[in-house]
Fold this protein.
Amino acid sequence: MNLPIASLARPEPTAETVTPSGRVRHFYKAYGLIVSSEVTLPELEPTAPATPDLEIAVGPVDFPDAVAQDATAFRFEATRQYLSWQAVGAFMISGANRIDVDPAPGIDDPLLAFPLLGPVMALALHRRGLLVLHASAIAVGGKSVIFMGDKGAGKSTMAGAMIRAGHRLLTDDVVALDLSDPDRPMILPGFPQLKLAADAASVIRLEQAEVRPQVHPQIDKAQHRLRDGFATEAVPVSRIYVLERGGRAAISPLTGAAALPAIIKFSYITRFGRQALPGDFAAAHLRQCAQIAGRIGVSRLEVPAGLARIDEAVAAIETDLASRTR
């Protein structure tokens, strides 16, 4: 995984309390949840102290397997999931409402936030019954688009181009779908940050964003914290695109038989293999993927090579959305 960058010098959230052990608990909102966290997460939106839906606590994590010789290690059990990155720390997800964080020596909150708000948060949301995609999502009026694709396909870049065109970010990297109403799947808003490679950022130039400088040699993207251009309410899923490079901007629906494998491929949980879906979770996950594939479908979005032509893809998306009746 790539290492994150240091946080911006921004005012600390005022929404906080102090635990009996003396740790400061910050309160945030993300993915429709109230999050209390002993890790400072300026990426998230602060909110008033309240009974949390998800607690993030700092303390020892007794990883079941020895990981001293491994750069990364994962273990998935029925009620607990363990993730460890030797250079960062260990994380334990308990049930659907708690994440324990055990930092490696000398590691501070900005570094912990990188896996915590990526794969760890994705797994925690999955445990809450949401379908989580490794994707980016944009609100377009009362509609929405989701961008899926392989690493380097340009998901965040496409999202940035949509924001520049006046649309609003729902979430980047971790897309959480609430399928509790089978006729109206919803995208839950994440937090107002977009990660862009330097070449994409130089072309797109999001004026409404503060950029955190890259401070580690392994970082290949900069974090852009949006001052505006963020959708704070859940939006119905309208279109799901798989990004591909092409000679011109074009959109074509995948066949019904191809839509389901695409959703499964880009669901976040599949990154960890079959071990991450013990017992009935595999069948439930398949039903969720089939539900969204059948209800929404998936289209191929060809994006012209070269960042100078990315607005052609934006125009194709806007036209495609305008043709939808739902």
